[in-house]
TrEMBL record:
GO terms for cellular component: cytoplasm. The active site is at S135 (nucleophile), D289, H318. This is Homoserine O-acetyltransferase. Its EC number is 2.3.1.31. Keywords: Acyltransferase, Amino-acid biosynthesis, Cytoplasm, Methionine biosynthesis, Transferase. Substrate binds at R201, D319.
Length: 350
């Protein structure tokens, strides 16, 4: 693993016209770029992940996994707004010499892709062999594939969509309401809003998993208890884990970024945007995903030329894209080794 930082020395203009000075992007690389420069695997991470893909996607990325540094030059860059080294709301605003907090400019999934385009240019990467991302990372990857259709050879997106749904926005707004109910959120300190963030994480978990997941993993074995349930303990534990590694301000802005996702904005509509993608594409849905249900992935595969659709049946709902790595490896192997014709081909692997 090689963690680095790239600093962009010009103002970075956001989709909304606002600008960020001194943009920094933290990124991690594994392996080496080969002489042909055709072994780049670029990973777009999800909402609260970081650039260490081998930490949060083991089984798919690792020394002995399908994507590995022996054959691949793997790059994962921390997104704009995320607190793992890239410019975010706790960064210093050069105009005030204080952290941004709530004055940080709002950004979109298109801005996430634009920032990483700058990094790819800095690294002198002419072509990305495989661009892969799930959830928010999938939204970013789709934006990039639309913005630079000739740069991406193969695109793999999991549990994601072309436009964030009213259902997804409602979940995110509920989480922001929880954060806003914590009065410390408005005190502009690094610890501001952490109690609210803990509650927000609890809400989010209900969309990441499923009824069956909780029924199996958190089921009580003692029929006599009337309090202190396993499910309650689990929600508290997961909330505590997040607030030890994340901040409420990054979560606030990144959730709004997800809400902003709309591939058709200023592009004559979603279908036309999807049809502009030239990358050979694999779209993977999860049958039990209630946050990004499979119909959203089927829509992507239907309208992206040269797209394949695959669906897995996971016990873990939306989180299945991080957990079901054995099934994903088999699907991705088939996709990468496939010889493509000039016609669109949509298949389903289950």
């Amino acid at each position: 693993m090689n963690l680095k930082k790239f600093q962009y020395n010009k103002p970075f203009e956001l989709e909304n016209g606002k600008r960020l000075e001194n943009l920094e992007i933290a990124y991690t690389t594994y392996g080496k770029l080969n002489a042909q420069k055709d072994n780049v695997v670029w990973v777009c991470h999800a909402l609260t992940a970081n650039s260490n893909v081998m930490e949060w996607w083991p089984g798919l990325f690792g020394e002995n996994d399908y994507f590995n540094p022996e054959k691949d030059f793997i790059i994962c860059a921390n997104t704009l707004g995320s607190p793992y080294g890239t410019t975010n709301p706790l960064s210093i605003n050069p105009a005030t010499k204080e952290p941004y907090y709530l004055s940080f400019p709002q950004f979109s999934t298109r801005d996430l892709a634009s920032a990483h385009q700058l990094l790819a240019e800095h690294l002198q990467i002419p072509k990305i062999s495989i661009l892969i991302g799930g959830s928010l990372g999938g939204q970013q990857a789709l934006e990039w594939a639309v913005m630079e259709p000739n740069k991406i050879d193969k695109l793999i997106v999991l549990a994601t969509n072309a436009q964030h749904s009213p259902w997804g926005i409602a979940f995110n707004e509920s989480q922001r309401l929880a954060i806003a109910s914590d009065p410390t959120f408005y005190e502009n300190t690094p610890e501001g809003g952490l109690k609210g963030l803990k509650t927000a994480r609890s809400i989010a978990l209900l969309s990441y998993r499923a009824y069956e997941t909780y029924g199996f993993t958190q089921l009580e074995t003692d029929a006599d208890i009337t309090d202190s349930y396993r499910a309650s303990s689990y929600q508290n534990y997961q909330g505590e884990k997040l607030i030890k590694r994340f901040n409420a301000y990054s979560y606030w802005f990144l959730s709004k970024t997800m809400d902003s996702h709309h591939l058709g904005r200023k592009r004559k509509g979603i279908v036309e945007a999807l049809q502009s993608i030239k990358a050979k594409t694999l779209v993977i849905g999860i049958r039990s995903d209630i946050l990004f249900p499979p119909e959203e992935q089927k829509f992507l595969a239907e309208h992206i030329p040269y797209a394949q659709y695959a669906e897995i049946d996971s016990f873990y709902g939306h989180d299945g894209f991080l957990i079901e790595t054995k099934a994903l490896t088999e699907i991705i192997k088939k996709f990468v080794s496939k010889n493509y014709s000039t016609q669109q081909s949509t298949s389903i692997f289950i």
